[in-house]
Amino acid sequence: MSCWLPGCPALSMCRGLAALPITCLERAKDLKTRLGILLHKPELGHKTGSSSKLQLSSRRRDSSREVLEWRESFDQLLKSKSGVNAFHTFLKTEFSEENLDFWLACEDFKKTRSKTKLASKANRIFEEFVQSEAPREVNIDHETREITRKNLSGATSTCFNEAQAKTRTLMEKDSYPRFLKSASYQDMTKQATSRSTSKRSHT
């Protein structure tokens, strides 16, 4: 702002500022900048912190609920990605993870649309899991093995259905109950229950 009239307040202010040492003006500008940052920073930090805490709390509630749902049914366990991972870790301790790996391979196989890929995938799965003396042979009866072998001649998305169903039943009736009783799952449920109890006591 400038003014050429005598006695103008603006002119007096400009003269007063001009009389100040340059270092004082620079310090004043620096102080103003810092003050502006301090005024805005806590507000922004508070919002970000609250938002991240809410998201973390929500994730914990979801995971706690999920862990407790695994014991409701084998289907609930298989629907959960973290449930499948936990079950797979448990099966490794029993040296029977090939059953779950075969089931997962079949699920992936069903999503294949290309006929060429379908045939090559079918052969690969059969050689790895189904045929006699396969590197990771699953525990199915001879009749189911032969039916699956015949299905390969005209591979479709359903050619492993019977073998997959037998393997699933075996896991559900045999491995799944032991998983629910395992120390690792018991620890997970205790943590999930304590988080749920803590959440209820705070509301």
From TrEMBL:
Location relative to the cell: Membrane
Keyword field contains Hydrolase: no
Matches recorded under SMART domains: RGS (SM00315)
GO cellular component: membrane
Topology versus the membrane: Lipid-anchor
Leader sequence residues: 1-19
Domain of life: Eukaryota
Location of region: Disordered: 182-203
Polar residues: compositionally biased ranges: 183-196
Keywords: GTPase activation, Lipoprotein, Membrane, Palmitate, Phosphoprotein, Signal, Signal transduction inhibitor
Single GO BP term: negative regulation of signal transduction
Ranges for domain RGS: 73-189
Molecular-function GO terms, alphabetical: GTPase activator activity
Keyword Signal: yes
Function: Regulates G protein-coupled receptor signaling cascades. Inhibits signal transduction by increasing the GTPase activity of G protein alpha subunits, thereby driving them into their inactive GDP-bound form. Plays an important role in the phototransduction cascade by regulating the lifetime and effective concentration of activated transducin alpha. May regulate extra and intracellular mitogenic signals.
PANTHER family named among the record's database cross-references: REGULATOR OF G PROTEIN SIGNALING (PTHR10845), REGULATOR OF G-PROTEIN SIGNALING 16 (PTHR10845:SF187)
Name of this protein: Regulator of G-protein signaling 16
Record organism: Myiagra hebetior
Lineage, opening ranks: Eukaryota, Metazoa, Chordata, Craniata, Vertebrata
